[in-house]
Each structure stands twice: as structure tokens, then as C-alpha cells.
Amino acid sequence: MKSISIKGQERESVGKVSTKAARNAGLVPCVIYGGGEPVHFTAEEKAFKSLVYTPNVHTVVVELNGNTVDCILQDIQFDPVSDKILHIDFYKLDAAKEITMEVPVKVEGNSKGVMAGGVLRLNQRKLKVRALPANLPDFVVADITELEMGNKLYVTSIPTDNFKLLHPDNTVVAQVRISRAAMKAAQEAAKAEKGGKKKK
């Protein structure tokens, strides 16, 4: 999985006054959990643009006073009015411990059912995976090539390489539905066939 680097500054004071002052200065208060004592720091809001405002997922390398900490984004709070980032929680990664993350689904292939007039529906835009940090995928591939009209692609058909998918076997990832136009054409064809038999 790709990483994003964020340069931060450790916070000595974490009270409400200092937090408000940090936000007024265009900084986002953050905290890193998972490594014993929580590490509090701030970083410029623009530093999170590539991490937060994207459909992709990344691990994060936080740079603090010359040291780096590998993390994942755990939680984020937005201002309900301005939509500005209020606070971000990170979780420190351990190379020897598996973690759980949601990663996007990438559709590949040309469905036979879609080419025949069906409509593709992506039921799951993200899937929950569990893996060691080094094996976390950037995305999960859903190959829809063999999907006929009315077929469904289940999570059991998704290839997994060094990671586990944490979903029930009957989870539908994508399906090809019969479009209204195709349904109407089928009904008209059935009527025409019925009418032809009556004339005979």
C-alpha cells in the first residue's frame, strides 16, 4: 500500500486553549495511539489533502522531530458547519501484527451481461481486509468479465493474495441487472412470439 508523509510538530500542551489556538493557526490537532503513551502533535491542514479528500487509502508516515512513525488513519472529526478538519486519530503500525482496513474495489473486465444490455451495479465500493502492514493492498480487484445478465459476483470470487477478506461468503460485490430497455424488448419479443403462435 502506498504511503503519504506528513510533517508534524509534537504538542507539549493538549488542553482546550492550546487546541483552539492551534486550529486558529491553521493547524490540525492529532494523536497517535498504539505505541504505549499517546503521541500528540499538530500539522498543517493542507498536509492531509491527499489523505482525506480521496477515494484511495494510504498508510501514513508521520515525521516528528526527525523521527518517523508508520500509522494508519483511525478516525477523523469534521466541523459540521465549515467541514474543516477538527481532529485526527492515527494508529501506530507494528510490522509483525495484522491490521484491519477498508480498501476500495476496482472493477476490471467487460461483462458479457452489460454488453448484452444489462446494467452493472457495484454493491460494495469498499471491502474490509486484514493483513500485515506490508501486505495491505491498494485496492481489491473485482473481475466482472464472466458476469451474464442477472448474475452476481460474490466475495468468494475475489482473489486474495496475502490478505483476508472479512465478509460473509454470501456478500455480493457486484451484479448485472436486466435494464428496463432489455426487459421491455424481452416482453415485446415474448408477445410477438405468442401472437405468432395464435395465428397458426
Automatic annotation (TrEMBL):
Domain Large ribosomal subunit protein bL25 L25 stretches: 6-90
GO molecular function: 5S rRNA binding; structural constituent of ribosome
Keyword tags: Ribonucleoprotein, Ribosomal protein, RNA-binding, rRNA-binding
Every Large ribosomal subunit protein bL25 beta domain range: 98-178
InterPro entries listed in its UniProt record: Rbsml_bL25/Gln-tRNA_synth_N, Ribosomal_bL25/Gln-tRNA_synth, Ribosomal_bL25_b-dom, Ribosomal_bL25_C, Ribosomal_bL25_long, Ribosomal_L25_dom, Ribosomal_uL5_bac-type
Protein family: Belongs to the bacterial ribosomal protein bL25 family. CTC subfamily.
Entries under NCBIfam families matching the protein: bL25_bact_ctc, PRK05618.2-2
PANTHER family xref list: RIBOSOMAL PROTEIN L25/GLN-TRNA SYNTHETASE, ANTI-CODON-BINDING DOMAIN-CONTAINING PROTEIN (PTHR33284), RIBOSOMAL PROTEIN L25_GLN-TRNA SYNTHETASE, ANTI-CODON-BINDING DOMAIN-CONTAINING PROTEIN (PTHR33284:SF1)
Task of the protein: This is one of the proteins that binds to the 5S RNA in the ribosome where it forms part of the central protuberance.
Subunit architecture: Part of the 50S ribosomal subunit; part of the 5S rRNA/L5/L18/L25 subcomplex. Contacts the 5S rRNA. Binds to the 5S rRNA independently of L5 and L18.
Protein name in UniProt: Large ribosomal subunit protein bL25
Lineage: Bacteria, Pseudomonadati, Bacteroidota, Flavobacteriia, Flavobacteriales
Gene field: rplY
